[in-house]
Design brief:
Number of strands: 5
Strand content: under 5%
Strand order of the largest sheet: 2-3-4
Structural class: mainly alpha
Radius of gyration: 21 Å
Number of helices: 13
Shape: globular
Oligomer: single chain
Helix content: 55-70%
Largest sheet: 3 strands, antiparallel
Length: 371
């Protein structure tokens, strides 16, 4: 009997469960941005809908981006790998030396172009993934070698991490290094090269933390935030207070207290603390359910790709959102050191939201061509 081969076919529609998860997270994000930012917007901007309106505009732009890349030829997207790569490296360089950089909190991680603020790190995540997907798919015959299979992607990622450290953005450099490590594992790089490089990176990072009192204090405050609850541990303590006050059902939508200037920037990285306080365990479970559905379908779409380049691209796009979501949850719960990572689709911010929609659009595109 002849065996039937699994072949990729073009489906008339997209992965409906994946699309439902995207839209569900997006809707929840809009609700929580309005709830968590209204008081601050009213005080500083005299308009309680200030942040909500901007997030709504970002969301509409994000939906447009997702729709475009649902149909954008994937092959052409990957062929532009060096264009994406050069563009994001230039943007990262502009945050170090340019009149458009915005300094805040001792770091210049943003570019101000007229009314728009851009965080190049978010674009760098997607650009790096596109390059790595092409590299590991087309260099499989050389991926086990040091000079071709290991050195080029490591050198390019190191350049991007170096620019981030000059901002300085230590956490952003760690994020890109994590993407490289995971993509290299998936791509088949030799462990004898990969793990020593990872050990060297961790050792270098540890040395940077130990030799910087500010960084050392910030990275280890999560171990006991109540030791310094009014200074270095303040944000995490307020986050835990909010989550603890939520209980099973929460205080009620709009009834949270931590957003009343107790939790700094409650609509940004710590928006889950407000969600947990207002919607309780039930609300947090809904977030985890939607994220779980997104992750499950994203990985399923990737595994169903016959073409290696498409499979790596799908995995990479999934990792951009998954790593960010897991890190944000871990930070809010006090499980890892504080790091400015936005919760995909839910936190306020245009750069993160647009990249999350971009990744989702590429994955929905891939879902049309699967086994």
């Amino acid at each position: 009997m002849s065996k039937k081969k699994n072949i990729a076919v073009i489906h008339p529609g997209f992965d409906c469960l994946f699309l439902a998860a995207v839209l569900g997270l997006c809707a929840l994000g809009l609700i929580m941005v309005l709830s968590s930012s209204a008081v601050m917007a009213e005080k500083f901007w005299s308009d309680k809908y200030y942040f909500f309106q901007r997030q709504a505009i970002f969301t509409l732009l994000g939906l447009l981006v997702m729709f475009v890349f649902m149909y954008f030829p994937v092959r052409f997207l990957v062929r532009l790998k060096y264009v994406w790569l050069v563009a994001v490296i230039c943007l990262l360089a502009l945050t170090v030396v340019s009149p458009w950089r915005v300094e805040a909190g001792g770091a210049s991680r943003w570019l101000r172009l007229g009314p728009l603020g851009i965080q190049p790190l978010e674009a760098a995540k997607a650009g790096l993934v596109i390059y790595l997907a092409y590299f590991f798919a087309n260099k499989q015959h050389l991926v086990k070698t040091f000079s071709v299979g290991f050195l080029p992607p490591t050198a390019i990622t190191a350049l991007m991490c170096g620019l981030l450290l000059m901002q300085p953005d230590f956490g952003g450099a760690v994020f890109l290094a994590t993407l490289l490590f995971l993509m290299s594992l998936i791509g088949g790089a030799r462990l004898m090269y990969l793990f020593p490089a990872a050990l060297l990176a961790v050792s270098t990072g540890w040395a940077m933390i130990v030799n910087s009192p500010y960084r050392f204090q910030r990275w280890f405050v999560f171990l006991d935030p109540f030791k310094d609850p009014t200074d270095s541990g303040y944000q995490l303590v307020q986050s835990l207070y909010g989550l603890g006050a939520g209980g099973i059902w929460g205080r009620g939508l709009g009834e949270g207290r931590q957003k009343l200037f107790f939790l700094p920037e409650a609509h940004n990285d710590f928006i889950l603390a407000v969600l947990g306080e207002e919607l309780g365990f039930i609300g947090m479970s809904l977030v985890f359910l939607l994220l779980g559905m997104w992750m499950w379908r994203a990985l399923k779409i990737s595994l169903d790709q016959e073409d290696l380049e498409r499979r790596f691209l799908g995995f990479g796009m999934a990792l951009v959102v998954i790593v960010a979501a897991l890190l944000n949850i871990a930070v809010v719960l006090g499980a890892v050191p504080p790091k400015g990572v936005a919760m995909p689709f839910i936190s306020y911010g245009g750069s993160s939201l647009l990249v999350s929609f971009f990744c989702s659009g590429v994955l929905l595109n891939l879902s049309r061509r699967r086994k």
